[in-house]
TrEMBL record:
Belongs to the SIMIBI class G3E GTPase family. ArgK/MeaB subfamily. It holds the Pfam family MeaB. It comes from Planotetraspora silvatica. GO terms for molecular function: GTP binding; GTPase activity; kinase activity. This is ATPase/protein kinase. Transmembrane segments: none annotated. The gene is argK. InterPro entries: GTPase_ArgK, P-loop_NTPase.
Amino acid sequence: MTTHDDYLRGVLKGDRRGIARAITLVESTRPDHRELAQRLLVELTPHAGKARRVGVSGVPGVGKSTFIEALGTSLTARGHRVAVLAVDPSSKRSGGSILGDKTRMARLSADRNAFIRPSPTAGTLGGVATATREAMVVVEAAGYDIVLVETVGVGQSETAVADMVDTFLLLTLARTGDQLQGIKKGVLELADVIAVNKADGEHEQAARKAASELAGALRLLRSSTPVLTCSGMTGAGLEELWIQVVRHQEGVDLAAKRSRQQVEWTWALVRDRLLARLGEKAAPIAPAIERQVLDGALTPSLAADRILEAFLPERETPSG
Ligand SMILES: Nc1nc2c(ncn2[C@@H]2O[C@H](COP(=O)(O)OP(=O)(O)OP(=O)(O)O)[C@@H](O)[C@H]2O)c(=O)[nH]1
């Protein structure tokens, strides 16, 4: 049986197998594992926090794997240690699109200064995001000084990733017509740096034009988010892009941003767990109450009180 000290030593030694085992532990939902994981995280935390944390987002097909492989190898070539984590609540880990999948980043996964971990499969976004945040503590304590967190450009996972990184990078593609139309507005607000990817060969001109249009549109929105072009395939623009990432981090109060993220994360966990427990407690009475609402015997407001009464020992609900 692996003890607390084994996990701790494995991670601090920076040994890949030890890191992988510790991440498996923090991803586990078994109560005894959770307890061991939290003890481990408390001890690892003082060793963590020294990495640059960068989120990488973009719709499927934008070229994230190729991009991360190219950026990651250029960073390890400059002496960095790069960890790639992922948040993809839909991942099944058996075929299909699994973020952070090693087979999609063959060069980087063979690089001894890189560590790639696919998205945990815990199910809910909250669960997956929590496991990834905890994995970030593990890889940082193990000495990785750059953490790239990949996410799919769909659903709420981008917000979850933006909440755990210092800089959120949005990859997009050149499109004809209105550049903003193809990008969800909320995601634009999350982005600290935007890059029009696949700016190579015959696409290069279109990518440049798209980037300048997008920059113009952002200026109208009073945003100063830098917009660049790059190519994961040729490596063009990656150096300038990394300069912008570093510049962004130098321009914000990182300590304050991370403190805010920790507190927000705490409350997000409270909400998640409260809802989960409420769901468990309410499960036996829920069908009957729902039926009464549908029959008109209960108003939704009274029904909500009934459900909360099953959860709270005494009537402490804020409503009426
Ligand atoms: N021309 C060009 N093609 C690229 C570039 N990057 C990726 N591609 C191609 O675009 C397709 C998708 O690239 P992937 O790197 O797998 O990325 P993705 O589709 O975002 O996929 P996931 O990482 O699975 O989300 C592949 O056919 C790549 O060969 C690039 O910089 N230039």
